[in-house]
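Worked example 3. Consider a protein that binds alpha-D-galactopyranose.
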Amino acid sequence: MQIELLKEFQNRFHKEPENMFFCPGRVNLIGEHIDYNGGNVMPCAISLGTWLAVSKNTDKKLRFQCLNFPEMVDLHLQSSYSRTGKEWFNYPLGIINQLLEDGYSISGLDMLFYGNLPIGAGLSSSASVEVLTVFALDQLFQLNIPRTDMALLSKKVENEFIGVNCGIMDQFAVAMGKKNRAIQLNCDSLNYDYIPFETGEYVLAIINSNKKRTLTDSKYNERFSECGAALKLLKQELKVQSLCDINMISFQSHRHLINDPVLEKRALHVISENERVREAAISLKAEDMIAFGKLMFASHQSLKELYEVSGKELDAIVNFCQTFNGCIGARMTGAGFGGCAIALVKKESISDFTIQLSDYYKKKIGYAPDVFASEIGDGVKEWK
Ligand code: GLA
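Given these inputs, the predicted complex is written out as structure tokens:
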């Protein structure tokens, strides 16, 4: 990949890139739709991601190109930008705009991106591009931005420039990931802990349902508002800042305040899922993968029944996993409504798993899923 990107950069810009960078995507092991509710999540960085070859220029131009997309965007360097349409370059442009607004100065840039994360599949391709861009500019212009601030800045861009009310999980995971570690992150305090994620006799399989998410952003924002509405009702009697400040015992004695069954289900998912993350951390520390796998199945059930962000494709994958002998846990990962599921599968069964799941899924859904075994990798870095 590195060679192709380098050659393409030379062909397109007739010079050498000054640097190359890589930022991974992520999977969330457990703790879904929790980050914008102030609770605990457990993501990790994966080996797929986004690369950038970049060089400064003296003609005050921002040139955005990408091997995955045809657009070649050429903008004058100015003091601010606004989003134009939905194209991919809005992500790096949003980052540049935010850095300029924050008072950092930069020169013109020639940028060539490439990514191998399936887009819209819930593996955080957008956070990967955002954090990649801020990290690259930090290195090129010696801005000295700490990694956690890179994640916060990228989230701000996603919220304000792109217009998705996402939490901090994705940007934090791809900025802070570590090889063979899950990150247990409290999304309120941003305190975090690296937990060994040694899968031993199992592999972490990522299964792309290949169902493209179309309504995701609006449905995602709808869930965000529903949680806000449930919180407001609970606050009539509870002194809390976010849904995840409430434990299950307290929720049970106050749930009558939510006089809407849909909002009640949303809150129940959030509060139970937050507790599952704590239990999951205990299981991982005790190297009890069986207990961890059970929590994955329970998480999926809750996302399906209570939060209603799964769908027939993701459910088909998890249903199959529940019946397959060598699989000890599975769930959808990311925002849902399509995208990917993850599963823990016995190493020696992974090829049977892939064949049988593909047959089952094709019969049920009509087209094939993609299955790949993933490594847990590092966060954003220079690509030498
Ligand atoms: C998306 C968002 C994250 C998080 C997940 C759901 O990936 O970008 O902030 O809310 O959905 O857990």
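Take a moment to read the result before moving on. Residues 28, 32-33, 35-36, 166-167, 169-170, 334-335 surround alpha-D-galactopyranose (CB under 6 Å). The two ends are 12 Å apart (CA to CA).
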